[in-house]
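User: I'm putting together notes for a lab meeting next week and I want to include a structural view of one of the chains we've been expressing. I don't have a solved structure, so I'd like a prediction I can at least talk through. The sequence is below, exactly as it appears in our construct file.
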Amino acid sequence: MTTIEQSFSRLGFGGGGLGNLYRAISDEQAEQTLQTAWDGGVRYYDTAPHYGLGLSEKRTGAFLGQFDRDEFVLSTKVGRLLRPRVPPTERDDDMFEVPGDLVRVRDDSREGIRASVEESLERLGLDRIDILWLHDPDDVMEAALATGAPALQELKDEGIIRAWGAGMNSAKHLHRFVLESTPDLIMLAGRHTLLEPTQSLPLLADCQERGVGVVAVGVFNSGLLAKDEVPVDAHYNYDEAPRELVERARLLADICRSHGVSLPAAAMAFPRRHPAVVNVTVGTGRPEQMRHNLELEAAEIPEALFDEIAALPPIDTQS
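Assistant: Thanks for the context. Below is the predicted structure for the 319-residue chain, given as structure tokens.
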């Protein structure tokens, strides 16, 4: 285990909601949510320029700036530079409720990554970033491996960051990234979950062998595992969940219920059972949801529950 992995809190805070993901929140609500996380012992905070066109970074930095810098671990992401949109639009054309005065420009070059770091530090108002993630390089893997990974390693060698890696929804692409570069960590989104308990095991085995820590995110599969009563219109991979996945999630909920456990509590606990997983990070923009997440994280889950789920026939999630 690396030094930075020892600095993680068990639960991390994902900053997508602070960027007005799907709906706008006030600065006061963002601060209350972060304060709830801090009071609950959360000391790892993840953000990105992508989240609300820099809004999440600004809110995260404004809050964390009141604490001693050595008290927390901070990560942000590179690969998307923010540049003026001409002409500006009333709303961002992605999932964030913010004005469309900026546009995301993909850039995995050495120069682009260094520019992204400088601009993130300015938005954060902090003196350093601990971890840098290449953000969703699924469609630009050649550039990510040829220029992005070496640029991040260079920043680490210079002492500018403490660790680096890549964050993606694709276990296949992350596996290639682990095998063909030398990341300290990876951020695995929505793949090693209660719904998909075995699909990422080859990736996790290689991470364990190579000493690459795994930060598990998207543990609720875009909301499919977020409630005890799985709604028919639940989402999976940011889209409407196929009927067979809704049925599997309802079966998982029934199994959890028979063991006196909530489905989201089991979903949060599951990834951490693998020794390669060093942290589970979840995001929210609401203080009450953050309190709920802390309660879920503290729940005790019987091993018999996971044994029963492991005995289920596999289901093809095509992910």
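A couple of points you could mention at the meeting. The chain has a mean pLDDT of 95. The domain at 3-224+263-310 is CATH 3.20.20.100 (TIM Barrel).

User: Perfect, that's what I needed.
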